[in-house]
Amino acid sequence: MKRRSYLKAMLAATAGLSDAGAQGQKKQAQNPIVLYVDLSVDPVKEQEMLHNFHTIFKPVATKFPGYVDVKM
């Protein structure tokens, strides 16, 4: 039956991905990524940008594995 072989392949792929993810997290801990961004913001919209950063961007960024900090 093809369904059975598809399920076996999906389970094997999932197991392989979870193992690869664990190895990837170890590598990330050794080589963190630092990203510096220079933004040019219209002074009229500066408060809107800061509000969006603190209420939308930062809460989502904290959910990523290995998150350390984000500053504006």
Describe the protein's architecture and organization.
The chain has 72 residues and is mainly α. It has 2 domains: 1-31; 32-72, no CATH class. The chain has 2 helices and no strands. It has helices spanning 2-30, 46-61. The protein is elongated and about 60 Å long. The termini are far apart. The relative contact order is 0.09. The mean pLDDT is 77.
Identify the notable features of this structure and list them briefly.
elongated; single chain; mainly alpha; 0% strand; 2 domains
User: Major β-sheet, in short?
Assistant: none
The number of distinct structural domains comes to 2
Radius of gyration: 20 Å
Q: Order of helices and strands, N to C?
A: HH
Instruction: Determine the strand fraction and express it as a percent band.
Output: under 5%
Structural class assignment:
mainly alpha
* Terminus-to-terminus distance: 56 Å
Low-pLDDT runs: none
State the total count of DSSP E strands.
Answer: 0
**Count of helical segments?**
2
The residue-averaged pLDDT reads 77
Morphology: elongated
Task: Report helical residue fraction.
Answer: 55-70%
Note the topology:
Elements: H1 2-30, H2 46-61
In brief, what are we looking at here?
The chain is an all-alpha fold and 72 residues long. Helix content is 62%, strand content 0%.
